[in-house]
Amino acid sequence: MKKFLAFAMSLAMVFSLAACNSGGSSASNASEDSTSAAGSSEAGAPAGSSGGDLITVGFAQVGHESDWRTASTNSVQAAFSKDKGFDLQFVDCDNNSAKQLEAVRNFIQQGVDYIVIDPIVSTGWDTVLTEAQSAGIPVIVIDRTIDDSDKYVSWVGSEFTNEGLAAGAWLKAYAEKKGIKEINALVIEGTTGSSAQIGRTNGFKKYADANGWKILDSQSGNFTQDGGQSVMESYCKSYQGKFNVVVCQNDNEAFGAEDAMNAAGVKYGIDGDVVLISFDACKAGLKEVLSGKINADFQCNPLQGPFCADIISKLAAGQTVEKKTYMKEPWYVSEDVLTDISYTNNAGNDVTEPLIHVTQDVVDKAY
Ligand code: GYE
């Protein structure tokens, strides 16, 4: 594969610049206006460019903290199988940024053909990405984003701020429909410094600020069930009887928050006193939406493996790739009382998006 690298690298660099100018591709909830979207391309095509050679790919995965993460790992491992032309080296970085930097440096030392990173946090990347660039190894970023460097070729993932904005827009419309006059919210954030945590926090806060909602507290549950449970246990003690909305930034935190609220005798969900909002919409999360315990769940689509493999196959074949690809992500609700939400998305576009009322069929088809 080495012989393709110099060419692919230079092409990628040229294309990165072009894509920066054009804004890249986008899906239904994404910030930008272009038409190509994850879900509609020929993702998953075999690599097939190296006359039988396998393309070596090092993947520095965040960890194993959630159902979302398991689905992401499975998606990447299936897309980068040997019979699809890849030799994947997978490192679970256990939510440890130092370990993730070390994994990437090891990939550079081994001289893999491509490096894929799902960055635990969005900063601290420029030095190691410069090292990868100097070694001629193209880097593809998936899921979470990198803020402090543009030394990667392509990214595929979600518009996290839109997820937070959509949650805010839904809560505003739902509260109006149900005659809920005051919002006193508790937020359980994801891993501090991850772009998923930053985007979801900022998007929701924008609605809170604009509508005079009170955010009583906002602490990290680290995207885990245990984290969600312990933060919610302390919230139940500190804010007993004072909150009517709980926002968990992923489903696993919501499961932990449910356990804590059950233990504290707090009634939540469609028949309760507390509206429970979640993100990810994994199968187990959507089951809770179906049973009415989670009121609304804003999907983050983890099935990025085929799109990432497609990007690498194209680079290996000397083709151009988009700088950004957004996943398509629907919004799920428990009650059939609102059909859609309208909001101004992170790119400043006014959008109206459907709300999917969860049925058993929706749960069965979920990741
Ligand atoms: O929401 C959470 C996971 O980066 C979007 O990470 C991902 C987040 C996801 O732990 O469940």
UniProtKB/TrEMBL annotation:
GO terms for molecular function: carbohydrate binding. Residues 1-18 form the signal peptide. Keywords: Signal. InterPro entries: Peripla_BP_I, SBP_2_dom. Gene3D superfamilies: 3.40.50.2300. GO terms for cellular component: cell envelope. Residues 28-48 have a biased composition (Low complexity). It is found in: Cell envelope. Residues 28-49 are annotated as: Disordered. Residues 58-319 form the Periplasmic binding protein domain. The keyword Protein biosynthesis does not apply. Transmembrane segments: none annotated. Belongs to the bacterial solute-binding protein 2 family. This is ABC transporter periplasmic-binding protein YtfQ. It comes from Caproicibacter fermentans.
